[in-house]
Amino acid sequence: MSKITISPPGIHASVLTIRRFADSFDGLTIKEAQKRFTRGKIKMTTWTHGKQLVATFPKHEVRLLFFGDTVKMTSVQVLSK
Fold first, then answer.
1. CA atoms of 14 and 18, how far apart (whole Å)
2. In a 10 Å sphere around its CB, with 0-12 CB exposed, 13-18 middle and 19+ buried, how is residue 22 labelled?
3. For residue 39, which of 17, 53, 58, 52 has the smallest C-alpha distance?
């Protein structure tokens, strides 16, 4: 019998999953985006071109940049110890 080993997903698969998550916010309004964050600390600020929503969780932070009324850019930062 041959032995089957299953290895954990590599960094490439993880990056693709995070990118898909980040892209899922594109075009959402502030209200729609806030509904997606049921947990975490949410902070809303303004910047040169609009508003910014930052959702902080124990292991990551999501930053949404709004141009006008919709999300145009999303950043996900993995937090380490």
1. 6
2. middle
3. 58
Give the pLDDT confidence score for residue 4 in this predicted structure. Answer: 77
For the chain, where are the E strands, in sequence order? 41-47, 50-56, 60-67, 70-78
pLDDT reading at 8 higher than 90: no
The residue among 75, 35, 51 whose CA lies nearest residue 43 is 51
Apex 18 CA angle, 14 and 20, nearest 5: 115
pLDDT band at 53, cuts 50/70/90?
A: very high
First to last CA, the chain: 43
Under 8 Å CB-to-CB from 78, ≥6 apart: which residues?
A: 18, 59, 60
Q: Which residue is associated with the tokens 């919709």?
A: 70
